[in-house]
Amino acid sequence: MYTRISSSLGILDCTFRDGGYYTNWSFPQDLVDDYLAAMAVLPVDVIELGLAGKGPSAGPFANVDNCKARALRFSKNTLLAVMIDAKDYFEYDGDTRSKLDRDLGHKVEDGIDIIRIAAHYRVAHMCKGLVQHLLESGYRVFLNLMQIDMADLREIQECLEAVKKVDGLEAVYVADSLGTMKPTRVKDLVGDFAKGLRADIGYHAHDNSGLAIANALCAAEAGSTWLDCTVSGMGRGAGNASTEQLLRVVAPGYSKPAEDRLQQLVVKHFNPLKEKYGWGDNPFYQIGAANGLHPTFVQEILSDRSLSGDQVFHWIKNIPANSASFSRAVLETAKQCALTNRVPVTAQMEKVA
């Protein structure tokens, strides 16, 4: 078990990983230095430095290996994590273990402590080999169950049974990938996993419905022992539960100098980024969440600053409901339909049916 600031609740800040969806996982050096210095004095147990193995088209924080983690380590009191995408390994034609070793580099002291595996809940059973190799290499392993909110009762039970058979997991995360969860759903899902598994349970919120903080607190009440957050809520789509808001609630009384350092970090670095990229709760993300859309659809639409609010609205509404996987083809088709006032083919078919 990890050493935590709180005996019952661990805090994981994943700013560089989730925020990287806006910056292509590249951040200015002065922001990196100020961020690491702030995390070192805050009641944050784990920093997720980014992703591993995403290749040269993505920035440095999408290709974090042990050597890079060691160079970034600011405090021995804070654990370092990276996330890998399970499908990168499931779809790989060569030897999976060799790819993992290349992506992560040689395990070194003061390097990466924790690997988080992101996997769609339907393929959780396929992660056993990945987990075993990571454990043998000396890592602690968390499993993030993507889009679990879309699962029905039968699928939840099947997922629970599959995860039980994956030995060595220290934490299993309920991830609100589409930002669609309501507090009652959070309590039900987290409660089911907390009762059904011996591993710790984590919760990763997205703010598409404006409920990230409320949902995180509901998760803690329902049995979650790990909560994710990002500075200023920076993350894919509408973003995440913000570090500054979450700590104020779950870790009240941490030092005033530490809080000041966090607020200075927000004002100096993240407010300008938020003004530039525009993450955060707004009506368009709420529409996307209500229609079950992958948040990247709305993120991509909002990046086109030439459109009026009415055009943005119609573009989003022309994306077929429950498009839980991002598709640029679907995005472009919906745009053309919205700008020419045509009804998309999928909607025509639904109407006929």
List keywords for this structure.
disordered C terminus, 17 helices, eight-stranded parallel beta barrel, 2 domains, about 45% helix, about 350 residues, globular
Helix and strand topology:
Elements: E1 10-13, H1 15-18, H2 20-23, H3 29-41, E2 46-51, H4 66-72, E3 79-85, H5 86-90, H6 96-104, E4 114-120, H7 128-136, E5 140-146, H8 153-164, E6 171-175, H9 183-196, E7 200-204, H10 212-222, E8 226-229, H11 243-250, H12 256-277, H13 283-290, H14 295-302, H15 309-317, H16 328-340, H17 345-352
Parallel strand pairs: 1-2, 1-8, 2-3, 3-4, 4-5, 5-6, 6-7, 7-8
What portion of residues belong to β-strands?
5-15%
What is the makeup of the main sheet? 8 strands, parallel, barrel
Strand adjacency order, main sheet: 1-2-3-4-5-6-7-8
Indicate the percent of residues in helices: 40-55%
Classified by CATH, the class of the largest domain is: Alpha Beta
CATH topology of the largest domain: TIM Barrel
Tell how many strands the DSSP assignment holds.
Answer: 8
> CA-to-CA gap between the ends?
54 Å
Question: What CATH architecture of the largest domain do you see?
Answer: Alpha-Beta Barrel
Mean of pLDDT = 92
User: How many domains?
Assistant: 2
Structural class category: alpha/beta
Structure annotation, total helices: 17
Low-confidence stretches: 1-6, 345-353
Shape descriptor: globular
Order of helices and strands: EHHHEHEHHEHEHEHEHEHHHHHHH
- CATH superfamily caption of the largest domain: Aldolase class I
Give Rg in angstroms: 20 Å
